[in-house]
Design brief:
Largest sheet: none
Oligomer: single chain
Membrane topology: Multi-pass membrane protein
CATH superfamily: MFS general substrate transporter like domains
InterPro entries: MFS (IPR011701), MFS_trans_sf (IPR036259)
Distance between the termini: 59 Å
CATH class: Mainly Alpha
CATH architecture: Up-down Bundle
Number of domains: 1
Protein name: MFS transporter
Strand content: under 5%
Mean pLDDT: 81
Subcellular location: Cell membrane
Shape: globular
Number of strands: 0
Order of helices and strands: HHHHHHHHHHHHHHHH
GO molecular function: transmembrane transporter activity
CATH topology: Growth Hormone, Chain: A
Length: 430
């Protein structure tokens, strides 16, 4: 890898990570603050829901616009705007301003979601096709990694410094991300091709990009499967274990904020381990097209079994953290593998639209899962809620795999492989 390429990748990755870190820091800190003051997992889940559901609007209505833009210029503008909006939170720090604070979280999340879409578009404007395929798993992992580290840092800052410091650090992160993006040099040929392809059709309705993306998902099994498993990983796994992080340390082990920070720290370590393991085996061609589905199902199975065993570890903090870490690691392997496939099989002109729809579906359902799961923990308890979630995972994965195999069998029956011609000498002999 050349020095230029390392510099370009490092700058773009750091800008993406710092921007996402900033977007998550305040939201997670505020959710922890609400739970501490009210003791309600439901109110805390509302904060997460306000953040996640913003992805629905950007993914459906704005993704096509993002596909037509220069990602570098757009990322700089969005990060600066996010920094300015974040500073408004200084007027909403008292407990009585909960409704206003949630509205502000939603507005910031609109900008954050646009940044997430633009950074994916940057993958096909900053690098050539080989580099995009190589970097996409690591680049995409900046999102869950930023979320985990923001959780650990946010809880620590909230406890020992205060909420005002969280707001200033959050705004500063967006400014730093904008500055780093200034020094990124896009791949000129790929940038021109990307813009030309996305603008060739001219201006269309705001929903046309989402419709085309949905049609592409339905037409290509690889993209449809990738979207399904990405959505599964952020709903049935991530949405529920993020909710558990705010509850388990206090309800099971009485550790308070320190326990929450501990779990967020292990989440970040597990995410990095998942990225490393996937890249290690993938670059040595041990994860290929032939065994990729087996790797994916193996990771889903391992995560499900560890999640199923977690309530049994209620009296053992070490075992609970270990099981939680394996769930996160396996979920990360599923995410990066399917994201890589999705980017590799999506035309450059539709990258933002496809990722936007996937994000809209995933994070909207994530908000629903988090809210329902939190209500379940408040109502029937932690363990029954986990068991119900596991039953849903088994049902969804089994149903999808059966549906996919049935579709492939019908397609093979409709288009049988042509028979090979019989050589002349064989026909003569017969």
């Amino acid at each position: 890898m050349s020095v230029y390429l390392r510099r370009n990748f490092l700058l773009s990755f750091l800008a993406s990570f710092i921007s996402l870190f900033g977007s998550k820091l305040l939201m997670i800190s505020y959710a922890a603050y609400v739970f501490k003051e009210s003791g309600s997992a439901t109110l805390s889940a509302i904060v997460f829901a306000a953040d996640w559901i913003a992805n629905l609007f950007v993914g459906i209505f704005a993704a096509q616009y993002i596909d037509r833009q220069n990602a570098k210029t757009l990322l700089i503008k969005l990060n600066v705007a996010a920094a300015l909006i974040t500073l408004l939170f200084l007027a909403f720090l008292t407990p009585g301003m909960f409704v206003g604070a949630v509205i502000l979280v939603f507005v910031r999340s609109l900008l954050k979601s646009a940044v997430s879409n633009a950074r994916v578009k940057a993958l096909v404007q900053f690098f050539d096709e080989r580099e995009t395929d190589l970097y996409s798993p690591v680049f995409n992992s900046s999102l869950p990694l930023a979320l985990a580290l923001a959780g650990a840092a946010g809880v620590f800052i909230l406890k020992f410094v205060g909420f005002t410091a969280v707001v200033w650090i959050d705004a500063s992160a967006f400014v730093v991300a904008a500055v780093l993006t200034v020094f990124v040099q896009p791949h000129s040929a790929r940038l021109e091709d990307s813009l030309a392809a996305s603008r060739a059709a001219g201006r269309r309705g705001s929903l046309s990009g989402a419709r085309d993306a949905l049609a592409l998902m339905a037409r290509k099994e690889t993209i449809g499967t990738a979207v399904f498993y990405i959505v599964l990983s952020v709903t049935a796994f991530q949405a529920t274990y993020e909710s558990l992080i705010t509850v388990i340390p206090q309800v099971w082990f009485h550790w308070g904020e320190s326990g929450t920070a501990l779990f967020f720290t292990f989440e970040s370590v597990s995410i990095m381990a998942g990225i490393f393991l996937y890249q290690f085996f993938s670059r040595r061609e041990l994860i290929t097209a032939a065994n990729g589905n087996a790797v994916n199902l193996g990771a889903v199975t391992a995560a499900t079994l560890c999640y199923l065993a977690m309530p049994a570890a209620r009296g053992n903090l070490y075992l609970c953290v270990a099981l939680f870490s394996v769930v996160v690691l396996c979920g990360e392997v599923v995410w990066v593998h399917q994201f890589k496939l999705m980017i590799a099989h999506t035309p450059d002109a539709q990258v933002s639209s496809v990722v936007g729809v996937q994000t809209a579906i995933g994070y909207s359902l994530m908000a629903v899962f988090a809210f329902v799961f939190a209500r379940g923990m408040d109502g029937i308890g932690v363990a029954p809620s986990v068991y119900a979630d596991i039953a849903l995972v088994v049902l969804l994965v089994g149903g999808w795999e059966l549906l996919l195999r049935g579709r492939l069998r019908r397609r093979d029956s409709a288009h049988p492989a042509p028979s090979l011609p019989v050589p002349e000498d064989v026909r003569t002999a017969n």
